[in-house]
Amino acid sequence: MRVIRFVAVTIIGWALAAGSGAAQQRIAGDFDLEATLEVCAACHGENGVPVEPDYPIIWGQEEYYLYVQLKDYKSGLRTNEIMQPIAEQFEREQMKELAKYFAGRPWPNLPVERDDEKASKGEVQTHAGECAQCHNTYQGDSRLPRVAGQQEAYLRRTMIEYKAKVRVNDPSMSSLMRSYEDKGIEALAHYLATL
Q1: Domains of the chain with bracketed CATH
Q2: Taking Cα atoms as reference points, which of 44, 66, 69 lies closest to residue 142?
Q3: N or C: lower Cβ tally within 10 Å for the chain?
Q4: DSSP string, the chain
C-alpha cells in the first residue's frame, strides 16, 4: 500500500509541478476540468472505483459535502498529504465545478463480502451512537456524506481519525467517535459499507 500511495503522490506532484502545462493552465484560472479529472482519477479511479481500499468513493457523493471537503483541504482544516496540495490550487468556483461533476456521476456500488455477525454488531453501534439522527438512511443529504456502500477501510480510517482528533473538521463526529471502542468502529464501518 505504501508503494501505491508513493506512486500516487509522485504522479500528482508531477501534475502540479510548476513546469506542468496542465497545472499552469489550471492555476492561471483557465480551469481545465478534463486535466484535473485525470489527476483525481490517479487515486479515486477512472470509473469511480478508488485505487486503494482506504480512499473514498467520490462518484455520486453529495455535491455540497464534496465542495466543503475541498474547501477544508484548501484551508488546512482537513489534512491529507495528497489532497491538500491539490485543493490549494483551486479557486472557489473550480471546487464547486468539481463537486458538481463528481456528484453527477453514478455511485459505483462495489461488491462487499458481508459478515452477518459483524454487520449486526455494527448496526447495534449505529443505534448506540444515534447515527441515523444525522445520517438518516445513510444515502447522503446535501451537507452529509453518503456513507452507505462507502469503502470499509476508508470509513474505518475516517472514524479513527475523528476519534484521535486527527480529522477535526467536524467536532461533533470527533466527540461521538471518542465514545466508541476500536472494535465498535470496525463493526460500524463494516455495516455501513454493506448497506
Answers
A1: 2-103 (1.10.760.10), 116-193 (1.10.760.10)
A2: 66
A3: N
A4: -HHHHHHHHHHHHHHHSTT-HHHHHHHTT---HHHHHHHHHHHH-TTS--SSTTSPP-TT--HHHHHHHHHHHHHTSS--TTHHHHHTT--HHHHHHHHHHHHTSPP--------HHHHHHHHHHHHHTTTHHHHTTSS-BTTB---TT--HHHHHHHHHHHHTTS--S-HHHHHHHTTS-HHHHHHHHHHHHT-
Q: Tell me the CA distances in angstroms from 183 to 12, 14, 28, 158, 188, one per residue in order.
A: 34, 39, 47, 14, 9
Phi/psi of residue 144, nearest 5 degrees: -105, 135
Q: What is the mean pLDDT of each run of 10 residues along the chain (195 residues)?
A: 47 43 48 94 96 97 98 97 96 97 96 97 94 93 94 98 95 95 97 97
Give the pLDDT of residue 29: 60
The pLDDT score that the predictor gives to residue 30 is 74
The amino acid present at 114, given as its one-letter code, is R
Confidence at residue 129, expressed as pLDDT on a 0 to 100 scale: 87
For residue 183, how many other CB atoms are within 10 A of its CB?
Answer: 11
